[in-house]
Design a protein that fits this description.
Layout: E1 30-35, E2 39-48, E3 51-61, H1 68-71, H2 76-95, E4 100-105, H3 107-111, H4 115-126, E5 131-132, H5 135-146, E6 156-162, E7 167-173, H6 182-187, E8 202-209, H7 213-219, H8 226-239, E9 256-261, H9 263-273, H10 280-283, E10 287-288, H11 290-310, H12 322-335, E11 341-344, H13 348-360
Parallel strand pairs: 1-4, 4-5, 6-9, 9-11
Antiparallel strand pairs: 1-2, 2-3, 6-7, 7-8, 10-11
Helix pairs in contact: 2-4, 5-13, 7-12, 8-12, 9-11, 9-12, 11-12
Length: 369
């Protein structure tokens, strides 16, 4: 499948209501929901200074894209699981009386022949109105979510969002933006990738590859040997990057930063740190070198499928997807080796929250004295 590039069955039983944190105070709350190929995730938050505080959250593996590669359609069982999860989200939104929200669906719903039909069913059965966003909108939100992790010394930035059904890469030139202004300049990109003004962040190139941890795994499911399957997945993904090649012949080292956002990157970071219980405070913002990441991936291969299933740092949900994600990560680091890959435990939900709050003017400008 050619990577996308820009040109400029029955009733669902009532779900048992899940526990949720009580809303604190009377301040308005914001919500963002990301329905991906593998997971359904939502955050409810309130603005606090230049950031936000999470009031409630939801995350569940729904495997919406299971079987999509073979049939081109969302299956009845996947739809059933997903609508059950969305009912929980609807309950949380109602309990918190959320009025400002954005609810999006990504690659699985973009590609599925019955994607629009599924969106109508979701609205009919849950009351939630989700929008299927474009690859560029997905890339923009990923960029915005990672803005707080960008160093003031970064001049060339590569943001990588490894999803379940697709992977977005955005290369940004920050040389025209003064160091203290770079976070704000990137957060302003939620509305588009067109640079405005002389001190704007400039998108050099971007791409949405229709290969994520679930879709890449499905492509090579019939390869029995673990090592061979990994090598083939990594090669296949790298081939898909042929048209995305800014600075590929002479990749920068000084002033170059990669920010990686995905379950793959955070899992690799947790393994690198030797965490037996995941700790977001230790993972989010961690910097790793190409050599450190390669060491973790080689250890995954040495463990084999059985060893990875037993490894508490990987987890039962992630173990079936970690090697396809690692294959993508390895391919990226072959193209652009770096001593500064920043791990982002954040993604589309955070990007949507930043965009909503920024539009409402409820976030403080941390660049002001």
């Amino acid at each position: 499948m050619t990577p996308k590039r820009p040109v400029g069955a029955g009733a669902i039983p009532k779900t048992v209501e899940s526990p949720a944190l009580a809303s604190s105070g009377s301040e308005p709350l914001y919500a963002a929901l990301d329905l991906g190929t593998n997971s359904c995730r939502m955050l409810v938050a309130k603005p606090q200074g230049s950031q936000f505080t999470v009031v409630d959250s939801f995350s569940k593996s729904v495997q919406l894209g299971a079987g999509l590669e073979k049939t081109g359609r969302l299956s009845r069982s996947s739809i059933y699981r997903t609508i059950q999860a969305l009912r929980v989200c609807q309950q949380k939104l109602k309990r918190h009386n959320v009025r400002r929200m954005r609810l999006v669906a990504t690659e699985a719903c973009r590609r599925a022949l019955n994607g629009p039909e599924f969106m109508k069913r979701v609205h009919r059965e849950t009351g939630l109105k989700l929008e299927i966003i474009s690859p560029q909108q997905e890339a923009q939100l990923a960029v915005v979510s990672c803005a707080p992790l960008v160093s003031r010394n970064t001049e060339q930035l590569l943001v990588v969002d490894i999803g379940g059904g697709s992977t977005e890469l955005v290369w940004i030139d920050l040389t025209a933006v003064p160091g203290p202004e770079r976070t704000r300049a990137i957060m302003q990109m939620h509305g588009g990738f067109n640079a405005v003004g002389t001190a704007a962040a400039r998108v050099v190139d971007w791409i949405s590859v229709p290969l994520g941890v679930a879709t890449l795994r499905d492509q090579f499911r019939d390869v029995e040997d673990d090592g061979a399957r990994f090598a083939l997945m990594s090669w296949f993904f790298e081939e898909s990057l042929a048209e995305f090649a800014p600075y590929k012949d002479d990749p920068p080292r000084e002033g170059f930063q990669i920010v990686g956002t995905s379950g793959t990157v955070t899992t690799v970071a947790a393994s690198h740190l030797g965490l037996r219980r995941y700790d977001r405070n230790k993972v989010d913002g961690l910097r790793m070198t190409s050599e450190e990441i390669d060491k973790v991936i080689r250890n995954y291969l040495a463990l084999g499928p059985a060893g990875r299933r037993r490894d508490p740092r990987i987890g039962t949900d992630r173990q079936v997807l970690i090697m396809s994600g690692a294959a993508i990560l390895q391919a990226l680091l072959r193209c652009w080796p770096t001593d500064r890959l920043s791990v982002a435990d954040r993604g589309l939900r955070e990007g949507m929250l930043y965009a909503l709050m920024s539009a409402d003017g409820v976030l403080e400008d941390e660049t002001k004295p």
